[in-house]
Design goal:
The chain has eleven helices and 13 strands. It has 275 residues and is of the alpha/beta class. It is globular and about 55 Å long. The two termini are 33 Å apart. Bound molecules: 2'-monophosphoadenosine-5'-diphosphate. The site of 2'-monophosphoadenosine-5'-diphosphate (ATR) has 15 residues, from helix 5.
């Protein structure tokens, strides 16, 4: 029996068990995937259990994504660049870690807005937290020539621009309209959109015609930003797809089967989220 986990603190809200258990059932595997509540003081103990062979691997979520990097044997270059590990794989007593948010973000856009990166002159990214780092790395690697990085706290955007290179142009939230001019992609990586929050007075009209607007927030599925984008005729891509796609590489590494992101799975998760 191959066992995998998701660890976090808190962990009750995680949709990862539903996603992986659906795939385990679909492929008829002798396997399990469970959510385990792990306080920061217990993280090293859990890693020791993984190293000892109790599990084949697992996912890591808040608040352990950075701390776990110091406890495992190998952090792949991508996760090191992003500064966080969300997927662990045990291999002959050694543990390596990667970050699948990068591939989840790209796979979701590729699936829902095919061609989004063709002739893309510039993109606007809102937010400079942990989620932003994976998305900036992904956009830089796809060759997006200019990325306007907008954040409430300008200093955090500046720090990311210093780290991720000259294609990142930092700016304050007050300049978002200006920075959106002609952009073909707008990504919200900030927490705005959750719990009834929204960007006030946001004007999307400077975006390029046919621009794609995407949000990593998926509760609600259609955030105020996505609703506005739809109403104004832009393409919109919700954040649930990123959650589903980021789960694929882990499942494949642990269980040796490439799972599919289907409409059925999506609907199952939506139902669990009460939407
Ligand atoms: P995560 O790891 O999920 O990205 P985070 O590191 O806490 O979380 O980052 C949250 C992001 O949302 C930040 O960019 C934050 O802006 P600040 O750097 O100024 O804190 C942004 N954010 C959160 N609430 C916001 C709000 N009400 N308005 C604008 N930006 C907000």
């Amino acid at each position: 029996m191959k066992k995998a986990f998701v660890i976090g603190h808190p962990i009750a809200h995680s949709q990862s068990p539903l996603i992986h258990q659906s795939w385990i059932a679909e492929h008829g595997l002798e396997a399990s995937y469970e959510a385990i509540e792990i306080a920061p003081s217990d993280l090293a103990g859990l890693v020791a259990r993984l190293r000892g062979g109790e599990f084949v691997g697992g996912n890591v979520t808040i608040p352990h994504k950075e701390a776990v990097m110091g406890l495992i044997d190998e952090v792949d270059p991508l996760a090191r660049r992003i500064g966080a590990v969300n997927t662990l794989v045990a291999d002959n007593g050694k543990i390596w870690g990667t970050n699948t948010d990068y591939i989840g973000f790209l796979a979701n856009l590729d699936a829902q807005a095919s061609g989004w990166d063709e002739a893309l002159g510039s993109a606007v990214v809102i937010g400079a937290g942990g989620a932003s780092r994976a998305i900036l790395a992904a956009l830089v690697d796809r060759g997006v020539p200019r990325i306007e990085l907008i954040n409430r706290t300008l200093g955090r955007a500046q720090a990311l621009a210093d780290e991720f290179g000259p294609t990142i142009v930092p700016g304050p939230l007050s300049e978002i309209g200006l920075r959106m001019a002609g952009a073909g992609l707008l990504v919200n990586t900030s927490a705005v959109g959750m719990k009834g929050t929204q960007f006030n007075g946001l004007d999307l009209s400077p975006l390029a015609q046919g621009a794609v607007v995407t949000d990593i927030v998926y509760t609600p599925l259609i955030t105020p930003l996505l609703a506005q984008a739809r109403a104004e005729g832009f393409a919109s891509v919700d954040g649930l797809g990123m959650l589903l796609h980021q789960a694929v590489p882990g499942f494949r590494a642990w269980f040796g089967v490439a799972p599919a992101v289907t409409e059925t799975l999506r609907n199952r998760v939506l139902a669990a989220l009460g939407q």
